[in-house]
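**User:** I keep going back and forth on a fold encoding question. It is easy to fool oneself when nobody else works the same problem. Could you pick a protein and write out its sequence and tokenised fold? Could you put it straight underneath, so I can go through it closely?

**Assistant:**
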Amino acid sequence: MKKQYDIIGNRKKFFLFSAILIAFILLFSLIFGVEMDIQFKGGAMLTYGYEGEARLSELQGTIEQALGSNVTLQTGSSIATGAQTLTISMPGTQTVETAAVEALGETLAQTYPESSFRQLSMNNVDPTIGKEFFMKSVVAVVAASLLILVYIAIRFKNIGGWPAGCMAIVALIHDLIVVFGVFVLMRVPLNGNFIAALLTILGYSINDTVVIYDRVRENRRLHGGSMDFATLVNTSINQSLARSVKTTVTTLLALGTVCVVSIVFGLDSIFTFAFPLIIGMISGVYSTVCIAGPLWVEWETRKTRTGKAKKA
């Protein structure tokens, strides 16, 4: 017989750990602030192709002197050509004129002739448009969460669908805050990668939760009233634990490979997507096992106690 972990019995420890983690992330965000990329904040973005190795520390000073403004740099690769790219961002209300871009191109060509810098694109994003895009992205995440809630409530209506759905959403919010925390702690500006990571984690995390809920429903059908709800959920979690862990580990191996490759080749844009996903995946399996089910049990336990107190 496989070892049974008392997940439900230790639920308050898990709740405390998650509460401390979330409090730390939010406090850190308030103290050090949250950086926004020009996609959400507005500003200017220049993309250059180059050859060889880009020394960002040297390039930073050269580019800021040429443009007369503070910039952030990010390396990556072109999807179309596979060439190495350097993205120059000027967040805020600043825009860049054609003359300044031409002057920058001449400076890069003279200073780093071996890199063969060539301009690929130039984008000026109005702050108002950036804010609208950010709000639409938030609406997309909220809408996805609400649809998940409705789906779980309908699918598991025979075993208490709405409470189950609400606890699953709480677990998802936990995962989204963790991914947000990774971006904040790494001082990576929130951008399209951030929204893509959130939506990806929503899908992976809820999939594991649905598997456990399916097991709860099946065990309820098999055992009926012979097993109390806490034992029922704990048994279901243990039965699904190996599957959840193995699936997550397989995905982490793939994402880990992507991270290593992005570090070796200096592909910052890929790394800032893959690494938060790794942390999000780990958080997802944790919240599925240690938050969603245990919270559901806590809800049902308190509801039963309240009902008994009213009768008394």
